[in-house]
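Structure first, sequence second, as always.
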């Protein structure tokens, strides 16, 4: 557990040039607080009679941090939410390792029902501020989603997508 906490702190320092110390990150970074609360809520979610406590904890974390992560979502290692206000991650979302997202990002659904309805995000993906990634789609490893993009179709590994609706852009620039 302490190794994982230290890994989270190191990830925040690596991803955010404004992070001055692990102490500062541990005390002040709401994205990290939301991730830590999600880990406990996700553990509760998978236990008998744990759904209500998991949802209660996730709603408390949403109130406290402004970041809503459903306890059913699966989140990988070294996930970092920078300036996290307004982030929403739905129940059936799967987020890989080393993913970085910014404020106002939604990993949401487009349908109702008890099936996979949220996106799967690969490893080492960057999702810019305000982007909306919706539906049961797959974002490939090393992809970059531009700020305010609306992504409703699968994205190939390494692609850069921008716009509403999003389009693949050649090169490594996020508009």
């Amino acid at each position: 557990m302490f190794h994982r906490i230290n890994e989270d702190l190191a990830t925040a320092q690596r991803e955010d040039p404004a992070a001055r110390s692990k102490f500062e990150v541990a005390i002040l970074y709401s994205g990290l607080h939301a991730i830590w609360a999600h880990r406990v809520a996700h553990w509760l979610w998978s236990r008998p009679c744990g759904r209500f406590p998991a949802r209660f904890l996730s709603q408390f974390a949403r109130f406290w941090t402004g970041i809503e992560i459903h306890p059913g979502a699966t989140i990988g290692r070294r996930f970092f939410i920078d300036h996290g206000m307004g982030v929403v991650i739905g129940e059936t979302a799967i987020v890989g390792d080393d993913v970085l997202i910014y404020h106002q990002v939604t990993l949401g659904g487009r349908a109702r029902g008890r099936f996979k309805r949220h996106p799967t995000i690969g490893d080492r993906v960057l999702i810019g501020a305000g982007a909306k990634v919706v539906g049961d789609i797959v974002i490939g490893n090393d992809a970059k989603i531009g700020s305010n993009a609306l992504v409703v179709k699968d994205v190939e590994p390494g692609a850069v997508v921008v716009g509403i609706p999003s389009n693949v852009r050649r090169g490594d620039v996020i508009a």
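Margin note: Helices lie at 2-15, 22-28, 30-45, 51-65.
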